[in-house]
Write a structure and sequence with these properties.
By secondary structure, this protein is an alpha+beta fold. It has a domain at about 10-85: Elongation Factor Tu (Ef-tu), domain 3, CATH 2.40.30. It has helices spanning about 65-70, 125-130, 160-165, 185-195, 210-215, and strands at about 10-20, 20-30, 40-45, 45-55, 60-65, 80-85, 105-115, 120-125, 140, 145-150, 155-160, 180-185. The chain is globular. The two termini are about 30 Å apart. Pathway: Cofactor biosynthesis; riboflavin biosynthesis; riboflavin from 2-hydroxy-3-oxobutyl phosphate and 5-amino-6-(D-ribitylamino)uracil: step 2/2.
């Protein structure tokens, strides 16, 4: 579990094929103190497992074929800068929001507009991904916890302050570039409880949650 508050940047130092997946070696800009093989590290928002730690800054992760298909790692190359966050400690403050590191899909930067000291960025997304977004809700973009300023059926806006622009890759990504998107997990659970939706095809069930149930139990 992560918070969407980026610890620092890193650079993809090496990329090798591993079956249908890939093995990435990344150099972190910060010291990986107390990090060991088996620990989770979010790389551009995707939860990956460190399989090797080399020195104080370098680590290696395996990227599965599924992760490559669902994320921007399909476009990644050595030299790319990435956002890094190690897994949340139970003793830590949650300054962002609860982020699982499981990417829902990709988005594309459609527009960047400077307003006073902020950068308003518009991202294009699929209608399915947009269905889990609400005005003033939370979203993780390349692992960065952000607040949604506006959303519609296929896009959303966020406001980036100078601090975030300086410390994450969002500050220097250009129009047309792709990003990883993770929507707030609460919406997914609510949808499943209310609709009775199951993950197994052909196994849909009818939910006991409806307007009458909510009114009877004092929720509305």
């Amino acid at each position: 579990m992560f918070t969407g508050i980026i610890e620092g940047l890193g650079t993809i130092a090496d990329m090798k094929p591993s079956g249908q997946g890939r093995k990435l070696t990344i150099d972190a800009d910060f010291v990986l103190d107390q990090t060991k093989p088996g620990d989770s590290i979010a790389v551009n928002g995707a939860c990956l497992t460190a399989v090797k730690i080399q020195g104080k800054h370098r680590f290696t992760v395996d990227v599965s074929p599924e992760t490559i298909v669902q994320t921007c790692f399909s476009y990644a190359k050595p030299g790319d800068r990435v956002n890094l966050e190690r897994a949340l400690l139970l003793s830590s403050r949650i300054d962002g929001h609860l982020v699982s590191g499981h990417i829902d899909g990709m988005g594309t930067i459609k527009n960047k507009n400077i307003q006073s000291n902020a950068i308003i960025i518009t991202f294009g997304i699929s209608q399915k991904t947009a269905g889990y977004m609400i005005h003033k809700g939370s979203v993780a973009v390349d692992g960065v916890s952000l607040t949604i300023n506006r959303c519609d059926l296929n896009s959303f806006d966020v406001s980036i302050i100078p601090h975030t622009a300086k410390l994450t890759t969002i500050g220097f990504k250009k129009i047309g570039e792709s990003v990883n998107i993770e929507t707030d997990m609460i919406g997914k659970y609510v949808e499943k409880f209310v609709t009775g939706k199951k993950d197994v095809p052909g196994k849909e069930s009818v939910s006991g949650l409806d307007k009458n149930f909510l009114m009877k139990n004092g929720f509305i």
